[in-house]
Structures are given as C-alpha cells and as structure tokens.
Amino acid sequence: MTTNSTALFYQKASQCLCPPGNGVFTVNTAKERKQNLHQALYGQITDIESVWLNSLKQLEHSSSAVVLGIASDCGGGILRGANWGPLFVRSTLLEQYPDLKTFDLGDIRVIPHLLADKYLNNETITNCRRALYQDESSPYAVSPLTITEDILHDFYATYPNKGIFGIGGDHSISYPLTKAYLQAKKKQGKRAAIIHFDAHTDLLVERLGIDLCFGSWCTHILDDLHENHHLIQVGIRSSGKPKSHWEDTFGVKQHWAHEVKENGVQSVIDNIHRQLADENIDELYVSFDIDALDDSFAAATGTPEPDGLSPDEALAILKSLADKYPITGADMMEIAPFTDSTGQGASAAESTLKVGADISAFLLKEMAKN
User: Fold this and answer.
1) What is the rounded radius of gyration, in angstroms, for the C-alpha atoms of the chain?
2) Whole-number pLDDT of residue 345
3) Judging by DSSP bridges, how do beta strands 65-70 and 231-236 pair with one another?
4) CA–CA distances in Å: residue 102 to residues 49, 120, 338, 369
5) Partners of 193 in beta bridges
6) Distance, CA of 306 to CA of 195 (rounded, Å)
7) CATH of segment(s) 3-368
8) Tell me: the pLDDT tens digits for 3-62?
9) Which candidate, 303, 284, 305, 287, places its Cα nearest to that of 295?
10) What CA–CA distances, in Å, run from 229 to 80, 196, 254, 275, 328?
11) Three-class DSSP category at 287
12) Nearest to 234 by CA among 279, 183, 284, 184
C-alpha cells in the first residue's frame, strides 16, 4: 500500500461517505438517537463532520472489522423502513457490546429514491452530483449501490487485510458488498464462499423489470464466485418454486428451514461442511437477512416469515463455520425498526434489534480476529 493510494481513498471517502448514522437524510427525525451514537463513537455531538473526517486517517492502523452503513431501502419493495437499520443496529451494538473492536467508516451518502446509476439518464446524474457534491462535473457516482461498489473496490485495493461489515438497508445492498469482496479476493488469489441466511432465495433474474433489487442480487454475483455452489443458502422457506428448481437452475446449494427443524441443526451443519470440504475455500462472507429468523424473533422487517430459524440455530451454524474458516466479510440486512406486520407492537423492534445485534456482534468479533 502506498501513501498515494491511502490519500486517494481518503479523498473519495470524504466525498462519498458521511458520518455514521447520517446516511438517512433528515433534519430532525431521530436527531437524539444520532446524537447518542455520535457521543458514543466520538465523545461529542458537535462538529461531527470534522471529527469523523479526522477519524478516517486512523483507518490504516485500526481493527480489521470495518463497519459501513448503507441506509437505503429503494431496492426493496414490500414494507419499507430498512433505511433506519444502520442507525439503530449501531446504537444497539454500542449499548449491548461496548467492547467490540471495530472501526466505523461511516455511511454511504444516500439519495433515498435512487438505486443504481445505470438506471439514470445523464441529466439526472448531473443534477444529483450537484446536490451531493456541489459539483455537476464530479467523477463520483450518485446512487447507493453504485457508490458502495465503487468505494469498496478502492477500499479493498488500499486495505487488503481488512473486511467490511455492511449494515443495511434492504438486501439489494449485498450486491455491491459481495461483488467488490469477491472480486478483491480473486485478485488476492483466494477462494471465497458466500453463506447467505434468508427466508427467500433472492435468485430472481429481475423483479418488475429491475435486475438489481432485494429479490435478485444473488443471481448477479454468481459469476464472481469460483463456482456457483460456493453460494450456500440457509433458512429458505418462502418460495414459489421447489428447492430443486433453484439448485438445478443456478447451481447453488440450499438448506431450507424445514430441514433444520426436521433433521436438526447439526445435520445441516454437517452437510454444509461436506459441501465445502473439497473446495479449497480460504475465507467466508456471511450475508444475513434478518427474516431468516422466525418472525417471533424478528418481526421488524419488510417481509417477516413464520417457521424460520431460531437465533440459537443460526449462531450454531455460524460458530461451526467460524471454527474452520475465517469470516472476512459480512452484512446484516433488512432490519426495519419502525416496521411490524405481525401485531407485536413496540416489542417487535426491540426483539429484532437484539437478535440482529447478537448475530452482528459475533460476526464482527470473528472479522476482528483476522
């Protein structure tokens, strides 16, 4: 790594990111929670932009577990509200796990009605560059998925021994997170697998004409894996097609939620280890959609589903994998603190945030070991 590459990354980050918790562009909403987050992270609630910018200069010597918030739910489409996930998950982590060794990179700057730059015409991109960067000729992207992928390519090139823990946001965000990760690992000569926890396969080619969204992101990272079966999905149960369709069509491996219930979690763990045994996998990325868990544990999400995993089952699988493979990238997606379609009321957000923080803390601790 050169001083020049570090300076170039800092320049891009200072433009394309913002302080942690500020990714949702509002004036007064959740102001107190944002201030509490800033107080916990920086010891003050004023002049946060300057404090955060100065903190970026410490990234090189920081923890290998680097947090990035992407407060976007434009790639979802059922119940919205996951854009508040990065702020609320961070706050819960700081409250419940104050000793975590992480570095907070901040949030992607999000224009909330944009998804990816490829869907925009030149006039819109120009206007959005003027709004985000006060420069219509800026070279930087303007949509959350495109900004995320762009900045992470530079992140991994500059800090190859660090990993990103992304907090969403809807699951479309895992497209740039995993794409940049997988491409970086290939350049490093490493073989990586994706362990994907979800109630849904996310293997559509497109949804209502949009190819990058919460229901299709997995399909569009398959070419970045060494083999399609290096995508292993756990907790699937809401699908219009049987398991055989997805495995035969896309070559992925799946472990449906009913298999965990019927055969026991250890049986599923053993099957996953058998699938990875002869694949020469060096590292793992874990993408965790909170709706992989049963809706009695995780109701504050856009698509809560019954008959899912328990937090203990999910953690048992993760702990077993972490015993054998380094987890060097991860994300926590689809926590929508203000959303509940199950009738649990305020307790829905509290319980969802708790289990989300528990799983996130485990993943961050593993990433910090590397």
Assistant:
1) 19
2) 74
3) unpaired
4) 19, 35, 26, 11
5) 284
6) 21
7) 3.40.800.10
8) 788 999 999 999 999 999 999 877 677 889 999 999 999 999 999 999 999 999 999 999
9) 305
10) 31, 12, 9, 8, 19
11) strand
12) 284
Q: Residue 1: which pLDDT band, with cuts at 50, 70 and 90?
A: very low
The sheet carrying 253-256 orders its strands as 17-18, 103-108, 65-70, 163-168, 327-333, 283-289, 192-197, 231-236, 253-256
Question: Which stretches of the chain are assigned E, i.e. beta strand?
Answer: 17-18, 65-70, 103-108, 163-168, 192-197, 231-236, 253-256, 283-289, 327-333
Question: In Å, how far are 58, 177, 278 from 221, measured between CA atoms?
Answer: 32, 10, 22
β-sheet bridge partners, residue 309: 293
Distance of CA 37 to the CA centre of its chain: 19
Cis peptide before 169 (omega within 30 of 0): yes
- Close Cβ partners of 274 (under 8 Å, ≥ 6 residues apart): none
Q: Is the four-CA dihedral 181, 183, 185, 188 of positive or negative sign?
A: negative
Q: Which residues 6+ apart lie within 8 Å of 244 measured at CB?
A: none
Query: What is the C-alpha to C-alpha distance for residues 218 and 202, in angstroms, rounded to an integer?
Result: 6
> Sign of dihedral through CA atoms 74, 79, 82, 84?
positive
Does residue 193 carry a pLDDT above 60? yes
CB 144 within 8 A of CB 108: yes
Name residue 328's amino acid. T
Tell me the per-residue pLDDT of 137-162, one tens digit each, with 9 for 90 and over. Answer: 999 999 999 999 999 999 999 999 99
Q: Give 137's DSSP letter.
A: T
How many Å apart are CA 147 and CA 4, to the nearest integer? 21
Burial of residue 280 (CB within 10 Å: 0-12, 13-18, 19+) is exposed
pLDDT at 2: 54
Please, is 240 exposed, middle or buried when counting C-beta atoms within 10 Å of its C-beta (0-12, 13-18, 19+)? exposed
Distance of CA 157 to the CA centre of its chain: 19
